[in-house]
Design goal:
It is a single chain. The chain is an alpha/beta fold and 511 residues long. It has two domains: 171 residues, Leucine Aminopeptidase, subunit E, domain 1, CATH 3.40.220.10; 307 residues, Zn peptidases (Aminopeptidase, 3-Layer(aba) Sandwich). It contains 14 helices and 22 strands. An eight-stranded mixed beta sheet has the order 10-11-13-12-16-20-17-18, sandwiched between helices. The longest helix is centred in the middle third of the chain and has 25 residues. The chain is elongated. The protein binds ligand BES, manganese (II) ion and zinc ion. Manganese (II) ion binds next to loops.
C-alpha cells in the first residue's frame, strides 16, 4: 500500500524518483500551478515555455515527462494537467487536484518515491491531492501471475504502485493539514479495500467468504460483527435473502457491522446490495450481460468500507452497516418466476423475474435496519440497468422518501467529488407492481425501471424513517480505460459520499 506524508523539504535536494508539478490551461498557453516555484526557478522561470515546447497545454489528464534540472536529486519532473486555470483569487477546485494527483500516481506506477509539488493553499487541498494519489496508485494484481520461461519462479507482471507519496508545500505541523492527510489515508485505504472486494472473482468471493473478510477487517478495527448464516436466516424469516440465494451452492449471509461512538447522538444505518455474482437466476442473463456481474456486490463493499472508515476516523456517530450477501444462480433449488416469497417484514412478494434480485435482498436488510429505528437509512446498490441508461456510467441516481434528505445526499456527493443526480419516485408507477397473488411483485413497468425499483424498496423501510437509495449500477464498475483516480474495474463508488454522510450526521447537520 502506498504511504502518504507531508514534508517541508525543498524540491531540489529531495531524493525521489520524480517530482510532480501541476500545469494549467491559461489564456495564453500553459501556466505552472502554485507549489512548483522552486522547480520553475531551476528552469530559469521558463518551465511553462519548456512545457509548451513539449506540446503540453495543461488539459486534464495530460502527462508530460521531462528531465529534472541539473542539481536536482530526482531525475524526473512529471507535469500533470489541471484543466482550466482558476479565476484570479480563486483556488484550484478540489476535484481537479484529486484527478490530477490520480493521473500522476498512475503514470508513476513502477517507481518507489514521488514528491508532489501541487497547489496546497488549504488543508483540504492536501486532503484532495493525497486522496487522488492513493486512489490513483491502486492496482489489483492478486491474480496476475506469469510463469517465467525458466519454469521456476512466478512473478507479478503488473507494475507495482508507487510506494511513497510525499506532499511538498503543505504544513506538516498544522493540525488541519495533519487531519486532512489522516482522513485521506483512512478513506482511500478503505475505498481501495472495497475495490479489492469488487475485483475479486466470484469463485473466490462467495457470500461466506465476503462475510469472513468483513469479520477479520472489522475485528482489526474494533468493530462488532454479527453474521446470520442460512440457518439463522431461515429461523428469522428472511425470505428475500434466502429466496435469492436458494439457487446457489454457496449459501447467503446477512452481515451486520456496527461502529459505536461513546459520544454519538445520532445513528446512521447503511444497507448494501451484496450479490457476489448475478447470473440472473432462472431468468438467466444472456451472454454479453453477465461478464461483469461479479460487481453486483459493490453496494455492500461500499457500505463496509464506509463503516470501517468511520471507525478509523473516530466519528462521533453510530454507524451500522448491513451487507445483504447472496449469489444469484439458476438450479433445481432456485427460486422460479411465479414463486411467492414471504419477506422478513411479513409482506409477500411474487417473483416475476429472478433477475430483479437486488430489491429482494435489500428489502430484508432494509427492514432489519429499520428495527433499530436509526435516524436515517441509506442503501447502495448496483440495482438497475435502467439507471445506467438514464445517467450513464459515471453518475449514480439518488431516490429518497424525503426531498430535503435527497438534496442533502446530493450535496454530500458533490462535496467529495462524486457525480450523482436526484431521481423521482413517481407514485403512479407503484400500481405496475400490483400482484394478483401477493402483496407486491418484484417487477413493474419497464419504463422508468430504476424508479420502479426505488418504489419497491420504499415499501420495506420502517414507518417514519428517513431513507435514501443510491443506484450505482453505472459508476460501480469501470469497463473502459482508467481516468483521473479511477481505475479499470471496481471503482469504490459511493464510499466517499457515505463517509461524508456519516461526518455530517456526527456534526448534527443531517438526519
Ligand atoms: N445487477 C443488475 C443490474 C445491473 C445491470 C448492474 C448492469 C450493473 C450493470 C440487476 O440485478 C438486474 O438484473 N436488474 C434488472 C431488473 C429487471 C429484471 C427488472 C435490469 O436492470 O435489467
Ligand atoms: Mn439481476
Ligand atoms: Zn443484480
Amino acid at each position: 500500500m502506498t504511504a502518504l506524508t507531508l514534508s517541508t523539504a525543498a524540491a531540489p535536494g529531495l531524493r525521489a524518483d520524480a517530482i510532480v508539478v501541476g500545469v494549467a490551461k491559461g489564456a495564453q498557453g500553459p501556466v505552472v500551478a502554485p507549489g512548483a516555484e522552486a522547480v520553475d526557478k531551476a528552469y530559469d522561470g521558463k518551465l511553462a515555455d519548456v512545457l509548451e515546447t513539449l506540446g503540453a497545454s495543461g488539459a486534464e489528464g495530460e502527462v508530460t515527462k521531462l528531465p529534472a534540472p541539473s542539481g536536482f536529486k530526482a531525475p524526473l519532473v512529471l507535469a500533470v494537467g489541471l484543466g482550466a486555470e482558476p479565476e484570479k483569487d480563486a483556488g484550484y477546485d478540489a476535484e481537479a487536484l484529486r484527478r490530477a494527483a490520480g493521473v500522476a500516481a498512475r503514470a508513476l506506477a513502477g517507481t518507489k518515491k514521488a514528491a508532489f509539488a501541487l497547489p496546497l493553499a488549504e488543508a483540504a487541498d492536501a486532503g484532495a491531492v493525497g486522496e487522488g494519489a492513493l486512489l490513483g496508485a491502486y492496482s489489483f494484481d492478486t491474480y496476475k501471475e506469469t510463469a517465467q520461461t525458466n519454469g521456476a519462479a512466478k512473478s507479478r507482471n503488473g507494475k507495482a504502485p508507487v510506494a511513497d507519496v510525499v506532499l511538498l508545500g503543505g504544513k506538516p505541523r498544522d493540525r488541519a493539514y495533519k487531519a486532512a492527510i489522516e482522513r485521506a489515508t483512512a478513506v482511500s485505504e478503505e475505498l481501495n479495500r472495497a475495490r479489492d472486494l469488487i475485483n475479486t472473482p466470484p469463485n473466490d468471493l462467495n457470500p461466506a467468504a465476503f462475510a469472513a473478510v468483513a469479520q477479520d477487517a472489522a475485528k482489526a478495527h474494533g468493530l462488532k460483527v454479527q453474521v446470520l448464516d442460512e440457518k439463522a436466516l431461515a429461523k428469522g424469516g428472511y425470505g428475500g435473502i434466502l429466496g435469492v440465494g436458494s439457487g446457489s451452492a454457496s449459501a447467503p449471509r446477512l452481515v451486520k457491522v456496527s461502529y459505536t461512538s461513546p459520544k454519538a447522538k445520532k445513528h446512521l444505518a447503511l444497507v448494501g446490495k451484496g450479490i457476489t455474482y448475478d447470473s440472473g437466476g432462472i431468468s438467466l442473463k444472456p451472454a454479453g450481460h453477465n461478464e461483469t456481474m461479479k460487481c453486483d456486490m459493490s453496494g455492500a463493499a461500499a457500505v463496509f468500507a464506509a463503516v470501517v472508515a468511520a471507525a478509523r476516523l473516530g466519528l462521533e456517530v453510530n454507524v451500522t452497516g448491513w451487507l445483504a450477501l447472496a449469489e444469484n444462480m439458476p438450479s433445481g433449488s432456485a427460486t422460479r418466476p411465479g414463486d411467492v416469497l414471504r419477506m422478513f417484514s411479513g409482506k409477500t412478494v411474487e417473483v416475476l423475474n429472478t433477475d430483479a434480485e437486488g430489491r429482494l435482498v435489500l428489502a430484508d436488510a432494509l427492514w432489519a435496519a429499520s428495527q433499530e429505528k436509526p435516524d436515517a437509512i441509506v442503501d447502495v446498490a448496483t440495482l438497475t440497468g435502467a439507471m445506467m441508461l438514464a445517467l450513464g456510467s459515471r453518475t449514480f441516481g439518488i431516490m429518497a422518501n424525503d426531498d430535503a434528505f435527497r438534496t442533502a445526499v446530493h450535496e454530500a456527493a458533490e462535496e467529495v467529488g462524486e457525480e450523482a443526480w436526484p431521481m423521482p419516485l413517481p407514485e403512479h408507477l407503484r400500481k405496475g407492481m400490483d400482484s394478483p397473488v401477493a402483496d407486491i411483485a418484484n417487477m413493474g413497468e419497464r419504463m422508468g425501471g430504476g424508479l420502479v425499483a426505488g418504489l419497491f424498496l420504499r415499501e420495506f423501510v420502517g414507518e417514519g424513517i428517513t431513507w435514501a437509495h443510491l443506484d450505482i449500477a453505472g459508476p460501480a464498475f469501470n469497463e473502459q480505460g482508467p481516468f483521473g483516480y479511477t481505475p479499470k474495474g471496481g471503482t469504490g463508488s459511493a464510499v466517499r459520499t457515505l463517509v461524508r454522510l456519516a461526518e455530517l450526521t456526527a456534526a448534527g447537520d443531517l438526519g
